[in-house]
Amino acid sequence: MTHIVPFYRPEIGTAEIEEVVATLQSGWLTTGPKVQQFEREFAESVGARFSVAVNSCTAALHLAVESLGLKPGQGVLVPTLTFAATAEIVRYLQAVPILIDCDPMTLQMNLADAASVLAGARPPLPNHRREDVPIVGIIPVHVGGCMMNVDEIRRVATAHNLWVVEDAAHAYPAAWRPDATSPWTRCGERTSDVSCFSFYANKTITTGEGGMAVTDDEALAARMRMMSLHGLSSDAWGRYSGGGSWDYRIAAPGYKYNLTDVAGAIGIHQRRKAEAMRRAREAVARRYLEALREIEELELPYVDPNCLHAWHLFPIRLRLERLTVDRATFIQLLGRSGVGCSVHWRPLHLHPYYADTFGYKPSDLPAATSTWPRLVSLPIFSSMTDFEVDHVIASVRAIISAHRPEMVAMPSQSTHTHRANAR
Ligand SMILES: *Cc1c(COP(=O)(O)O)cnc(C)c1O
Is 226 left (phi over 0), alpha (psi -120 to 50) or beta? Predict the structure, then answer.
């Protein structure tokens, strides 16, 4: 079904197309000069020393935890409200993702819950004690493109000697500051040991498929680069960047994660317009926030003045107790009205693999469990027209007003009585 307003539409211009054509005509298709240029310009734009372009953010995350020396049986703090990639890369190395509940307001990893696991106040995994699982790292996710408090993450990590790998799949470009008088820190500007970005088709900038790991640590960068191409020792890279060496040495059993120059060519131009596209999404977000604010049946995304928001997602939460529809019907009705939506995400502990392997019950991570049935992501992308934004707003309004209970609940006497009795 084609929607009047799709959930996402990439913004690919003539600059990307011409650079791709020039790359195809150059005869150099795999990793080469375009990727090198993309890496250099990307690192510069986030204020990082080193960058390794790869063929997905998942690959970047995998290389990051491998280069940090993650070992089988070690534990890594991962939010339960995230995409599959954040936790699966921990399993790639036979380590254990310790799922952390979300903050019910921001939807980010709840650092108080992480701290209580680290302190042994709640079990790291069902039926385990803190001593059973040596916790070595934390992978925060900047959900939707609003950065978490990176100072707070660093404090928790330093206190427990953890490394930090940022899943920054939504956070290019994004920035954060501790308060309104402090300067902005860009995501990737020493905000973690390794920051990993995604250039998947519907992310804030795209190369079709692609990703980037950035770091200020030269040794980590060198290890990630080596492992991204079969673990060939670094001098073998001449083969791929035009050096033409026919001999090479395998230093480790690496992976095949390098980005192609065709993708790099797209990335160079996507990156240059990343801030303009961010502003366009921010304008869409402002219009949604303004228009949907008075609808009491909805909870809108958390907005923080100290977060320069990438606005990759616009997740709303339905107040189901005030509505006569559930989330599935709401999405179906939006679809019928021509609006494409998505849901980010079914929490990991509610997936069969994590529930069966580690014994998670829904009640183990209550905030994510109760948030999940209420989540809907509305379309937000840089080329959205005014007509499209208006159509989404009108559709949401119409569905909500058609599904209010007959009797609108008044601020009831009984609630006050109940509260008074509870005291
Ligand atoms: C998209 C996404 C990824 C994976 O990105 P790929 O480039 O598709 O591998 C990882 N984490 C989060 C939070 C994502 O949304």
Answer: alpha
381 CB within 6 A, ligand 1: no
Give the distance between the most distant pair of CA atoms in the chain: 82
Taking the C-alpha atoms of residue 197 and residue 59, their distance in angstroms, rounded to an integer, is: 10
- By the 8 A CB rule, do 100 and 110 touch? yes
Under 8 Å between Cβ of 37 and 268 = yes
Q: How many angstroms separate the alpha carbon of residue 420 from the centre of ligand 1?
A: 47
**Whether the CB of 211 sits within 6 Å of ligand 1:** yes
Q: Which residues, given as ranges, of the chain have pLDDT below 50?
A: 413-423
Give the pLDDT confidence score for residue 406 in this predicted structure.
77
Task: Return the DSSP state at 392.
Answer: H
First-to-last alpha carbon distance for the chain, in angstroms, is 54
Please provide the size of the chain in residues. Answer: 423
Ligand 1 atom with the smallest distance to the CA of 85 is: 10
pLDDT at 414: 46
Tell which atom from ligand 1 comes closest to the C-alpha of 210. 7
Burial profile 297-335: b = 16 or more Cβ within 10 angstroms, e = fewer: bbbebbeeeebbbbbbbbbbbbeeebbebebeebbebbe
Nearest to 196 by CA among 313, 102, 76, 67: 67
